[in-house]
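Hey,
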Amino acid sequence: MAFKQPYSVCFLHILLLLPCSIFAQTHISLGSSLTAQNDNSSWPSPSGDFAFGFQKIGEDGFLLAIWFNKVKERTIAWSANGNNLVSEGSKVELTSDGKFMLNDATGKQIWMAESSGTGVAYAAMLDTGNFVLVDHKSINLWESFDVPTDTILPTQILNINSTLYARFSASNYSKGRFFFELQFDGNLMLCTTFFPLDSANFAYWSTQTNVGNTGFQVIFNQSGSIYLTGKNGSILKTFLSNSVSVQDFYHRATLEYDGVLRHYVYPKKTSQPIMTWSSQSFEPSNICLRIGDIGVGACGFNSFCRLDDQGPICECPDGYAFIDPNDLLKGCKQNFVPQSCDEASPEMDMFDFQDIEGTDWPDSNYEKFKPVTEDWCRQTCLGDCFCDVFYYENNVCWKKRIPLSNGRMDPSFGGKAHIKIRKNNSTLKPGGTNTKKNSSTLIFIGTVLLCSLGFLSFLLPFITYMVVSRIYSRKGKVSQHFPSFEEVNLKCFTYEELHEATEGFKEEIGRGAFATVFKGVLAFDDVQCVAVKRLNTMVGETECEFKAEVSAIGRTNHRNLVKLIGFCNEGENRLLVYEFMSNGSLASFLFRESRPNWYSRSLIALGVAKGLLYLHEECSSQIIHCDIKPQNILLDASFTGRISDFGLAKLLRTDQTRTTTGIRGTRGYVATEWFKNIPITVKVDVYSYGILLLEIISCRKHFEENAEDEDQMILADWAYDCYKQNKLYLLLGSDHEAINDITNVEQFVMIALWCIQEDLSLRPSMKKVTLMLEGIIKVSAPPDPSSLATSN
């Protein structure tokens, strides 16, 4: 039963909970203005918790916005011009006649607040995150809370027809494909749009209020709960709540670009080891299963949605690739020539199926058969040029055709999707124009030769055989797929393609013992920069390394791992194609003249830990990386740490915890058990991570032969001495940001010292390391890492 109380009493209760500081205002007088430039000038709220001004969005331009001013990420809570970023030199101004507008650098009006210019006396940025235009009677004529974008804040109220629109992507603030709205009939809904139009398509979550007791307002109260009320003030439904206090944490509820409405908190106290937004609650619980009807679904056409701990993940099935890697909701496209509908050449023998357990596109069926066998279903799909996928479960066969919509993967599905793809993933259609052209040319040449030189008729069959054999031999070689990796969804490149993409392997960006890495550009539908790793030789250990790297990375999918796009296997040519990381390696980031800021380093440390946790505990096959070091951690455009180079990886079966192998890795990062006659475990990666973490903290290499003090040559020993002597500031040099955060630095050092214990049983798992870095688990005092191990 809904709890009822007069609405006025409810609102008064909210006001009484507000801190006094929100009523204080710093007046922004008529004639004031801000200019878009890189000096970060803004109008802060009295406490400094929020600020109003321009934020630069990558290289695209400036966004007029309100943001959390004391949050290092400068999280944006409201914006005016997400669909139309402005250039440097643009200006927002509260004019002398009270108009509040944004003009670009040429003076063209881009945006103006409604009701401005009608008696406005001043503006103010409040401590609630609300920006207001006020008249001489202190009445708000306009406020940002009334025109939200994708976020609502404590004390904010959404009225009938108030709408939150998800932004297009993580870094694009234009309107996206989802919205959250309290509709005129009082129903609160999350909907997809008929993108690029704003109109509603499919409601995938709603409060489903009853007739006669419809919703009236959505209230985000000062206690951190978000609920729907009726006209009489009764609480009809509380849908996002948590137990974290507003006094100690910042709160926000944001409709993310993936369509999920999430309630986040961020610690106000700087004593927390890792300062990041944490999701407390969200709706819907599994968006992959909620969206149906006409449209792209939670992901794009021909893709499918899979839920993990980070939220919905969009993936392409085998034989398909994303149309735009920067906009996954655009969907996927076939990487092969589809089956011909020519009755004279049905091409049934040219196609096969790749199976995906627990995956379906339920809205793409066009035929259903029962009761039938799976083999019967397979054959009828092979013989049907319209059939791109068949789904089989409990003697029922569904045939599907592209575009496949509303794809989802979930363990609750008992059936299996079978994706039709051309054999060997060949992008060339056999028997095409080139073959006919070559055959015609040979016939023409042969005729001329026979007519003019009769004696060549003895040689012509031999010449024809050699030329045609060479053509078909070359085609077979180009289309060859490495037989060990058919189950991995990767693109098979020809050597010529990669030679052209790298301009003849012109720009070298990295070199190792077994391989050289070159920068390249794949110019298909969209230009994409890649890193092409060319193995130097293909004998002995290097052949094994190639197989290990493709097998390991091809099955992984995590934001802290470098993605493998494809490979080449032609003769002696073995190449791996990765997504290009624009900010290079962690080594070049750390070991330079000027130290990178401490906050960025701490986030990279946490990201690498999460990547290792994924490899150790969340993969279908547990992976030991075996060579964690700064050179193998790459940084993407957002300086997110991404683990690369799985050439030395060891895969463990699900029932296996240890493996035996020769010594691998890089000196200085290798755990002591490598040198003992015992099987290795994932704890070797934990040891390497500990050394890496010390390097991230100190911005110096694990071994400095030319160190001024001999005691400082080995970083691990020096770090422990500094820790025991309470002199950790020595590790930080002139890094004032880190010195001012010495408590958290100490926590990081202690975690690193636990990781590098000689006794591997004392080393924590990467899951525990991650929890300690996030401040969820307390870190106890570590023993001397070099003390003799008591157990294996």
